[in-house]
Amino acid sequence: MDALMNDPRFAATTFVVIDFEGLTPAGRPAEPIEVATLALRPVDGRLVEIGRFEELMRPPADVPVTVRDVQLKGITQRMLISAAPAAEVMAQLDARLTKAPYRLVAHHASTEAGIIARQAEHCPVLAATPLLDTLRLAKTVLPGLNSYGLDSLLGYYGIPKPAGRHRAMPDVEVTAQVLARLFDEGCADGQWRTLLELDAAAGLQPKRPTAPEVEQSALF
After folding, report:
1. Which residue in 150, 200, 183, 198 sits closest to 40, CA to CA?
2. Distances (CA, A) of 12 to 9, 47, 196
3. Tens digit of pLDDT per residue, the chain (220 long)?
4. C-alpha pair distances (Å), 42 with each of 6, 14, 73, 179
5. d(CA 103, CA 121)
6. 3 membership: H or E segment, kind and range
7. Among positive and negative, which fits the CA dihedral 172, 174, 180, 182?
C-alpha cells in the first residue's frame, strides 16, 4: 500500500466499508433490516479502524421475515420488533459522516447502492459518497478467477469465514480484510498509485455532497 500512501488524497480519505442485510419481497426492491459499517483510515501503510456502526432496522409491516431469511441470516421477526425504521437508522449513520473525504466500500455493491439510493432523502451525504466495489477491484487485480464472490475471495486469501457470515458486521469485517489485500496487490502490480487511479479502476466519477455537513460529533 506504500505507493498509495504517497498520495496525500488517499492518505486523507476515510474508507467506510458498508453492508446491508435485507428482505426481498416479491415484486419490490430489497427492504433493509440490518446495516453495519467499519471506518478505516490509512496509517503507516495499513488500514486502521477508527469507528464502527451497527443497527437492526424494522421493515414495513407488510414485509415479513421468512423461514429462509432466518436460516440464512439468523435474524428473526422478534429481533426487529423494537428496532427503528430504516429512515431513522440511515439518518443516524449519515449524521456521523462529518469529516470528508470518504469512500464507501462494499462487495458486489449494487445491493448497497440501490438501498442507499432509495434512502437518499434520509442519508444525503452517504448517497453522494463514491462507492468502491471490491468485486470490481478484485477482477482488476486477480484476473481469471472462477468466482469473485466474497466466499471465494476469502478462500483465495486464506481469510477464515466468520461464524456470523451473512450478518452485516461479520461481512463488513472480512470485506475490509479483502480490501486491504486488494490495495496491496494493486499497488504491487502498478494498477494504482493514487486515489484517482483507484477511482478510475472502480469506474467512479467524483461526486459532491448534496447537503451540508451535519453539526454533530462524528464517530468517524
Report:
1. 183
2. 5, 12, 13
3. 889 999 999 999 999 999 999 999 888 999 999 999 999 999 999 999 999 999 999 999 999 999 999 999 999 999 999 999 999 999 999 999 999 999 999 999 999 999 999 999 999 999 999 999 999 999 999 999 999 999 999 999 999 999 889 899 999 999 999 999 999 999 999 999 999 999 998 888 554 444 333 333 355 6
4. 11, 8, 31, 12
5. 19
6. helix 2-5
7. negative
